[in-house]
Amino acid sequence: MTIDNPSVQENKRQRLFLVLCGIFLTNALIAEIIGGKIFSVEALLGIPPAQLLIGGQKLDFNMTAGVINWPIVFITSDIINEYFGKKGVKRISFLTAGFIVYTFITVLAATKLPPAQFWLDINGEDHHGNVFNINDAFSLIFNQGLGIMIGSIVAFLLGQLLDISVFSWLRKKTGSRYIWLRATGSTMFSQLIDSFLVIGIAFYIFGNWELNQVFSVGSINYLYKGLIAILLTPLLYVAHYFIDQYLGKEYAEALMHKASEEQ
């Protein structure tokens, strides 16, 4: 059996970290950009509205489109933590937060640019022949506002830091066993904070929502995120298998052991 020399192993480690960071960063940015669209889960599945009684209100599963990408961010975060430790996850988390701020600023600047008249003219009607202002639609969709931007950044960073801490604590308790426990447990805990924090900052502090509305919508978001975290747990084992094959079982275990010893 041929064993990779140290330089080859190090190159593989760096490439793996680069790919994982790319997946993490790309999905976090996409989730922020498409997060302004709210969709009905019941309509997607072709079932009647849920009408769950939470906080004295009947609520349906109306979710932000960002939930398409956030589960990938959670899984990737746990994989980075598994092989590269807390420092690796913190590094990409702060970098991603910086890029999210940059994205919001760029989008805000784009909404302030004066539209070309021909662009308004050729898009002056929708598919039903109604009068349509594409520039107003563009601004309405992308210009989410200061409150949502601040809520997103704070919730993302705090959620990531909590996820990192809980994941590392559970790994110290379980060793190399129970991957599902530390991955799902850390996600469930961190998203409990994230689900309510982003809505509270955006719509209670900067908006006009009541606390019971924040609790109700946050509860729906958390139920969804918790369910997805559980359903996607098998993907962690699939990722572990392919990473171990790529790095080599012994080297992969050495990386995981080193990551687990970080304070």
Give the ordered list of helices and strands.
HEHEEEHHHHHHHH
Largest sheet: 2 strands, antiparallel
Number of strands: 4
- Residues in β-strands, percent: under 5%
Q: Quote the distance from N terminus to C terminus.
A: 35 Å
Task: Provide the gyration radius in Å.
Answer: 21 Å
Tally of separate domains: 1
Residues in helix, %: over 70%
Helical run tally: 10
Overall geometry comes to globular
Strand order in the sheet with the most strands? 1-4
Q: Provide the low-confidence segments as ranges.
A: none
Textual characterization of the structure:
With 263 residues, this protein is mainly α. It has one domain (6-251). Helix content is 75%, strand content 5%. The protein is built from ten helices and four strands. It has helices spanning 6-34, 41-45, 70-112, 117-122, 134-142, 146-174, 179-205, 211-231, 233-247, 249-260, and strands spanning 38-40, 52-54, 57-59, 62-64. The strands form two sheets. It has a two-stranded antiparallel sheet.
Spell out the blueprint of helices and strands.
Layout (H helix, E strand, L loop, with lengths): L5 H29 L3 E3 H5 L6 E3 L2 E3 L2 E3 L5 H43 L4 H6 L11 H9 L3 H29 L4 H27 L5 H21 L1 H15 L1 H12 L3
Antiparallel strand pairs: 1-4, 2-3
